[in-house]
Amino acid sequence: MTDPAPHVRRRKLGVRTKLAYASGSIEEAMVGAAGVATMIYYNQVLGVSPALCGAAFLIASVFDAISDPLAGALSDGVRTRWGRRHPFMFLAALPLAVCFYLMYQPPKGLSEVGLFVWFVVTMVGVRTAKTFYATPHSALGAELTDNYAERTSIFGWNWVVGTVSSVLLGAIVLLFIFPTKPGGANGLLNAARYHELAVMGAVVCFSVVMFCTLATADQIPFLHKREPALSGARRSVGDVLRETGRNMRRLVVNPSYLAVCLCWLILAVSGGVIGVVGTYALIYAFGMTTGQMAIQNFVRIPGALLCVVLAGFLTRLLDKKHTVIITIAISCLLVGLPYTLRLLGWFPPNGTPRMLIAFYAIWTIGFIVLPVVPIVIDSQLVDVADEHELQTGNRAEGLIYSIRLFAIKATGGLGGLIAGICLQVVHFPRHATAHNMTPRITDGLLLMMGPLYYLIVFGGLGFAFMYRINRRRHEEILRVLEARRAAP
Question: Which of 22, 330, 382, 467 supports an S-S bond with 161, CB 3.0-4.6 Å?
């Protein structure tokens, strides 16, 4: 069976198809919204030490390093009447929902070690199920079209839906599940409310995974069909493993792939520090309530509304490589700025309207630019998939995009490990209150969120300069591929 004709492969997609595909990003938005509470729950509510929580994130990341490329390779190699991607997406829905529920509902009476083991097992379960959904989903987006500009639009829509969902779900989590009562402790410290989070997350994850899988099934006839490197109707597990090994060997020496992967992984680690320590910093260094913390979700709205247009404009003006470099530098500088200014004593005091206005004004500008980064990186990875096919004859979107998912999970994995270690270093108390906070502890939180964040981000930004595929090079690749695919 051959691929669709070149004019079909270069097609532009309708809004309905883009939204159907983008609906799958709601799963990540739900996991991210719950992630704000995860470290707080196990550390401050259940009493597990920061070091053990960080170790749990690390262990989960070790499993991710195995499961992510495995899921990518399997979804590249399988052949069914429902295509290569959709069977895995469908089968992941129920395990993801069950493991999500269990992670926030450990049995009563467990010791600290027992809670640690429960945390590890359920987190590995969530991430493995997520792997077998999200890797094929990302690869599906890479297969929808060969159009250079349209790819940016597809992943732009995916980011818009994911960001808007993240805003809404994050606001629901903070304002309705964990509200802070007047004069009371921060709502995230209310153990009784985690049952509502567990139920909500399980239902949302199951529903959106099933919807996205079924709503995109009509695109199966337009996806890549053949795998020239391995002919024949039947292939063994050994065949798939050998093909995966060949693909990986070629990818690890591909400068453009290495550029995207290393830059994206380091960004994810820095995001993990922000995601885990950020909750602590907002509560204990800035004295915010859950209602005030919820504002951070809404500052993402302008960026979500503008990102598709902005990404298209910048990639036409600068091409993809320089768009990524410039937007990373600007957005990350602004995201870490409030913490750095507070550390230097140049930020308005807590409890004043000026503090909230200054904090979120800076973040609003930063988050207008930030969404362009993952949109263009996703688009770059599709171009790498074309170059890989040119070099090897194989379509390996699943394997290529497994690094994207691993990076997203490394946000809570390696970043969570670093955050856990740093919290241990500053001697953050297990049951923290405003009364047992010291300047040393709050300065430690700010140091992680500002200077340490900058050190990680700008240290990794140099890898982005290694990327080599531009619009002209991609057009040359497509011409050769289309001639090869058309050959009998």
Answer: 22
